Amino acid sequence: MSHVHAAAKFYGADPYRPWANDIVDAATFDLAMRRNRAWIRRMMVEGNQILDIGYDTTRTPHPMNGLRRSPFYEMEKQEVANFPNYPVIGVPWPGHSLIYSGP
Questions:
Q1: Which residue has the higher pLDDT, 17 or 23?
Q2: 53 pLDDT more than 90
Q3: Percent of the chain, pLDDT > 70?
Q4: Structural domain range at position 47
Q5: Is 98 part of a structural domain of the chain?
């Protein structure tokens, strides 16, 4: 997640910050996902701009979904998709896909 925080700092954005005790393993995964979902929804309800750096192209497949992107990123993409026409700005970041399917 350090790449997300580095990009946020570069762009002057405020990224999601998990609780300090969020160790994302089988026991805490669902709680961490609910917290992250609540955050992204709150950001959209408040009208905050969403910046998307894409997924890390060097990442090994995640054990929870077998993809080269985290299940948290996938959930955030789905949540944004649930808000029709919500603006998402794709921004470049080294080593990331910059997959952007917004308007």
A1: 17
A2: no
A3: 82
A4: 2-90
A5: no
- Assigned domain for 99 exists: no
Tokens describing residue 31:
């709680």
Q: What would the two tokens of residue 47 be?
A: 């009208």
pLDDT-based confidence at residue 101 (cuts at 50, 70, 90)? very low
| Entry pTM | 0.76
Spatial distance between the Cα atoms of 54 and 73, rounded to a whole number of angstroms: 9
- To the nearest 10 degrees (0 to 180), the angle between helices 29-45 and 71-81 is 30
Q: Please state, in angstroms and rounded to a whole number, the distance separating the CA atoms of residues 5 and 1.
A: 7
Give the contacts of 80 (CB within 8 A, at least 6 positions apart).
Answer: 40, 44, 50, 86, 88
Domain count of the fold of the chain: 1
Both structure tokens of 99: 């997959």
- Whole-number Cα distances in Å, 4 to 9, 12, 83, 84, 95: 9, 12, 22, 25, 11
Q: Give me the residue label for tokens 């790449």.
A: 3
